[in-house]
Design brief:
alpha/beta, 4-stranded mixed sheet, globular, 2 domains, cell membrane, Bact_solute-bd_prot1, palmitate, membrane, D-Maltodextrin-Binding Protein, domain 2, signal
Length: 486
């Protein structure tokens, strides 16, 4: 379950309750001085008015909407920092100065509960483009929580390895045909000491960025953690306090003890994790399916001439990269419910799903990231620096035929594998009054398993950990889960 960031005591209940009124008043006051009928104010992480690329992007979007649909829109991008974005956004919302389109990366549920976010389902049903590109799991999330939209294929962390290293192992072929936990272990042992194209020698089999999330994507289901809440004879229990979890953590400890798992994995960040892979120190890393895997493939080729191979999830009691949460999007775009320009705001989101909108959002700027030659679009090398800001449906439709696929072979394979092993989770939105307890229980879990893997605590203390987890708030959430899921 993703943690959510909420407004703190800086905002009183009384202040929150008056946000809608404040927003109306603020908009009316501005309207007395200026015609706002075609202005869309947008808050988006890492995009701001002082960023020339952001300005160019939204200017180009405005131009395209005018040319194709005759829609006149002017964008005002809110200046919010990338660092601490959600906190600053919450403060702006609490002031009553609420953008028309808002990107949330957590922290949205309180705004939704206060009536500040628009139900998007009626708009989607009447849309010209979005209704044709929305993914099945997006539809289910919108049924449960209709305020946040994020159209992308289901994603997961998938492992990659340098092709040369995999081919030099004796287990390589057998592993790919039958990726059991035992065969994963054999592969991990065999890659130690192998060299890539630049003669860089592998020290560790795998590393992660500071926690076990990426390992869990490979191994969770193999150890039987198929859903967040596991059904037992006595009701539902949280997967992280199950016997399956205990067995899995014991396995991670064995990897750590044998120095197959990077012994510095706890201190790794995403960049140092990736550098360890590019520099040949570790044989495997995991990255988000799709674009991230494509970036890994491109950079590995540039730095060492290495081709990458995407690996399947471990096979055991079950197999998969983890069940997909359908309770809600954990990030995405929302529309302010009291905006005077709600219809125009949705037209913007819908246009971004059109061929013209997708061409800008997915390919970048013409003659910088791609070029048009006759009836073909050629993606340039510089496109590796570009990433979509909005929608990324599995099937890309632009104005002309692409001369080559947008993503490389392994990136597309990673998307296909996640789709092949797709399964649905039974997680749910944690009620606001239980969030603090949930966070406390989750922190107990994270700290304890890190200590167990690194040997600071014994795996024999697992039952003691379960009791501590329950006392920290986990039992109350478990009781709620049994009421929710029965």
């Amino acid at each position: 379950m993703k943690k959510k960031v909420f407004l703190t005591g800086l905002v009183s209940v009384l202040a929150i309750s008056s946000l809608v009124a404040c927003g109306k008043k603020s908009s009316q006051g501005a309207a007395d001085n200026k015609d706002l009928s075609n202005i869309i104010k947008i808050a988006y992480k890492d995009e701001n008015a002082s960023n020339p690329n952001s300005k160019k992007y939204f200017d180009e979007l405005s131009k395209l909407m005018k040319e194709k649909d005759g829609v006149d829109v002017v964008f005002e991008v809110v200046d919010l920092p990338g660092e601490g974005y959600q906190e600053k956004l919450n403060l702006q919302i609490s002031s009553g100065d609420i953008p028309d389109i808002i990107y949330f990366q957590g922290g949205d549920t309180m705004s939704a509960e206060q009536g500040l976010l628009e139900d998007l389902n009626p708009y989607i049903k009447k849309s010209s483009y979005i209704k044709n590109i929305i993914e099945p799991h997006n539809e289910k999330r919108l049924e449960n929580y209709p305020y946040l939209m994020w159209i992308k294929p289901a994603t997961a962390s998938v492992p990659v390895i340098k092709k040369k290293i995999l081919e030099e192992t004796q287990i390589g072929k057998e592993f790919q045909e039958n990726p059991t936990v035992d065969n994963y272990t054999k592969l991990f042992k065999e890659v130690i000491g192998k060299k890539d194209e630049k003669g860089q020698e592998v020290k560790y089999a795998i590393t992660t960025s500071g926690n076990t999330n990426e390992l869990d994507s490979i191994f969770d289901m193999a150890f039987g953690n198929t859903q967040t809440w596991q059904k037992t004879d006595k009701g539902y229990i949280y997967k992280r306090v199950s016997e399956n979890e205990k067995e899995k953590i014991a396995y991670y400890k064995s990897l750590y003890d044998e120095k197959l798992l990077d012994n510095q994995f706890i201190t790794k960040k995403w960049d140092t994790k990736e550098n360890a892979f590019y520099d040949g120190e570790t044989a495997l890393i995991a990255g988000t399916s799709g674009k991230v895997i494509d970036m890994y493939s491109t950079k590995a080729k540039e730095l060492s001439g290495s081709e990458l191979v995407v690996l399947p999830p471990a096979k055991g009691k079950s197999q998969g990269y983890g069940a997909v949460n359908l309770s809600k999007e954990d990030r995405g775009l929302a529309i302010y419910s009291q905006s005077a320009n709600k219809d125009l705001a949705f037209k913007v989101l819908d246009f971004l799903a059109s061929p013209e909108g997708q061409q800008l959002d997915r390919l970048g700027f013409e003659n910088e990231h791609y070029k048009i030659e006759g009836e073909k679009i050629t993606v340039l090398d510089e496109s590796g620096e570009w990433y979509a800001k909005f929608w990324e449906p599995k099937e890309l439709k632009v104005t002309k035929e692409l001369s080559s696929p947008l993503l490389g072979e392994e990136a597309n394979k990673s998307i296909d594998l996640v789709s092949e092993y797709y399964s649905e989770d039974n997680s749910f939105i944690i009620p606001d009054d239980m969030v603090a307890k949930w966070d406390a229980a989750e922190n107990v879990y994270k700290e304890t398993i890190a200590d167990m893997i690194t040997g600071k605590k014994s795996i024999d203390e697992f039952d003691k950990f379960v009791k501590q987890w329950q006392e920290s708030g986990g039992q109350e959430i478990t009781d709620y889960a049994n009421e929710k899921l029965k």
